[in-house]
Amino acid sequence: MNKIPVLPQKFxxxxxxxxxxxxxxxxxxxxxxxxSILLYTSSTNVRSVCQGYGYDPKEYPHQMIVAKAVLTDVxxxxxxxxxxxxxxxxxxxxxxxxSDYIRYGIMEDRIFPAxxxxxFAELTRIKPAEVDYPRGAINxxxxxxxxxxxxxx
Length: 153
Known about the structure:
It comes from Candidatus Collierbacteria bacterium GW2011_GWB2_45_17. The chain starts with a strand and ends with a helix.
């Protein structure tokens, strides 16, 4: 059976990946899968990140697959990568705050990166496509059959 995994993300994280403003996605769960993957933008917006990067959520598709890529690696992030992710998730943060986070791991009112990085190659924007999204909070889901064939070409 044809199938392809879909990784859902809040807005604007997929857009940031597509524009090179993020180099990897962070998660708190590991995954042995490597290969083709689709990126789905959920209905949820991360307001502070949208404001920090000047994204107007109304101008971008939500609840749709917006990109395809190849998942090449999932691994524990280095301290340097955690600092980079922390800065990207908290626009306008000072170097001192980043240093304190890396050193002590505790800060209030900030978005924290997870410990694992999902690294992609061949990241490509595609025409936004609606798919049947499973109910509930999920880490990822699989498109199967004819829905998957559309993206496996």
